[in-house]
Amino acid sequence: MMNRKTAIIGFAIVVVAAAAALAAQLSPGTDQGRHLSAYSQPSEAQARQPELPVRSAGDELLFNNPLQENAADPGVFRASDGLYYAYVTGMGFKTYASPDLVHWKSEGPSLPVAEVSSWAKQDFWAPYALEYKGKYYLFFSASAGKGTPKRLSVAVSDSPKGPFKHPEKTPVFRFGPDIDPAGVIDPYVFMDDDGKIYLYFTKALHNVGDHKESHIYAVELNEDLHSYKGKPVRLTQPEQDWENKGKTLINEGSWMLKHNGIYYLMYSANCACNKQYSVGFATSKSPTGPFVKWEHNPILQADYDGVSGTGHHSVVPSPDGSELWMVYHSRMNQQDNEKAGQGNPRQLNIDKMGFREDGSIYVNGPTLTKQAAPSGSTAWRNIAADAKLTVSSVSGKEGSEKLLTDGEIGLYAAFAQNEWAPSNEERSWVKLEWKEAHEVSTVLLHDSGDPKRAIHSGKLLLDDGTSIPIVFPKEPGAAAIAAIGGTKITSLTFVLDKERPDGTYGLSEMTVLGK
């Protein structure tokens, strides 16, 4: 279950005199920074970044979902021009571009419908693009008309904005009588570090006994990206309890990551029309399986009011390459939850994600409140992990205080073991100390994912003794935010207000935006 979650804001702006600041580079030893390989976009995309504004301290360093309306099934990649491109479901595949994952600009449709009019009339679904050998390839599905199966094809352009060309008069891909009659949707292309290329796709809903299911498949592509080797292999089908909701059982929207030699097949399950639509993952030692689904799935789900249909995602690096971010759609209406799954336009959201020490994936979402923007999107960065961290005590697992700067916020009670919990002392505290003074803009504090361990209030103490009151309201996934105003500090301490006799509290993450 989702927590009542920490949010918004006991904040104050203070001016404190201190020594000169020196900005340290983000630690290259972070787990996310070491494992951004095995994307389908070219490696030079991370090397070239557009110039980003040097923003003042404050809300400019934060973002708030949703970020873009009318953006269903976002297929997102980062091109060698440094921009992120999102392609979304709909006639002509409307395209958006962003320098930072937060601010998106419409570039219009990228595929002229006339290019495929000989075979595609409707159902332009779930596009995905990548850059390969100086060209851009747009994979997509479409159908010849109502009641006809969707076909998978690929178009090519010299620009990520299009126009994409499709000289073939028929769909590029055919997979045979075991797959084609059902239709094929949700393409994704994965380029492994051994040079092999794989196409992942979904066999659309088809009869299985007394119900319908959709399954995920993979096949190795040739270097032309227009043909494949061998036969497609089925990788997943709905089988876990959370995936079995009704008589229409769905596995779709696949995405592949490789981390420490393990292949992570991420996917969405259940109907995108309701709150059960969620994201899970499975692992294998081979890109074509067999895959084993994680026993604690799902990792992204709509567990609270005002959000529905969270899924069909992409995964991209932050602008500086140090973090992983999930881009996904949702159906949202915070005023009327009944409408949240019934016809609301799907909207684009982003939330940070990463790998835990045990190899499992976490996602800091879905969120509807202000969060720290992706690293590298502004001149400020999270310096919390650079500090010496000390705590008043630890309850439970020794060393769990390091979870305060591991990147994972508290959202789900099921994962509350991945946070710091103090013992039942009178004044529990956390202290961050840097070797040199840093200019700090904003501090974000996320409390426990378990409502039984939620923190209600506390104080943030700067190294000159300045005290800032902190209040944790109840919005899911939100942070208590303190605006420091660019003050130079060498340390800060958060002190919890003890309000429960049993002293059961949890603090999941501390983010310090500095330079």
Summarize the structure.
This protein has helices spanning about 30-35, 45; strands at about 60-65, 75-80, 85, 95-100, 105-110, 120-130, 135-145, 150-155, 185-190, 195-210, 210-220, 230-235, 250-260, 260-270, 280-285, 290-295, 310-315, 325-330, 345-355, 360-365, 370, 380, 390, 430-445, 455-460, 465-470, 480-495, 505-515. It is mostly beta strands.
Relevant CATH superfamily of the largest domain: Glycosyl hydrolase domain, family 43
Largest sheet: 8 strands, mixed
**In CATH terms, what is the fold-level topology of the largest domain?**
Tachylectin-2, Chain A
Report how far the terminal alpha carbons are from each other.
36 Å
User: Number of helix segments?
Assistant: 2
What is the name of the CATH architecture of the largest domain?
A: 5 Propeller
Mean pLDDT over the residues: 88
Name of the top-level CATH class of the largest domain: Mainly Beta
The share of residues in extended strands comes to: 35-45%
Q: Count the beta strands.
A: 28
Low-pLDDT parts are 1-57
Total count of domains: 2
Cα-atom Rg, whole angstroms? 23 Å
- Tell me, briefly, the overall form: elongated
Signal peptide: 1-23
Domain DUF7402: 382-512
Site (Important for catalytic activity, responsible for pKa modulation of the active site Glu and correct orientation of both the proton donor and substrate): 186
InterPro entries: DUF7402, Glyco_hydro_43, Glycosyl_Hydrlase_43_Enz
Would you mind describing this structure in some detail?
By secondary structure, this protein is mainly β. About 0% of the residues lie in helices and about 40% in strands. It has helices spanning about 30-35, 45; strands at about 60-65, 75-80, 85, 95-100, 105-110, 120-130, 135-145, 150-155, 185-190, 195-210, 210-220, 230-235, 250-260, 260-270, 280-285, 290-295, 310-315, 325-330, 345-355, 360-365, 370, 380, 390, 430-445, 455-460, 465-470, 480-495, 505-515. Strands 9, 10, 11, 12, 13, 14, 15 and 16 form an eight-stranded mixed sheet that branches. Strands 22, 23, 24, 25, 26, 27 and 28 form a seven-stranded antiparallel sheet that branches. The radius of gyration is 23 Å and the shape is elongated. The chain starts with about 30 loop residues before the first helix and ends with a strand.
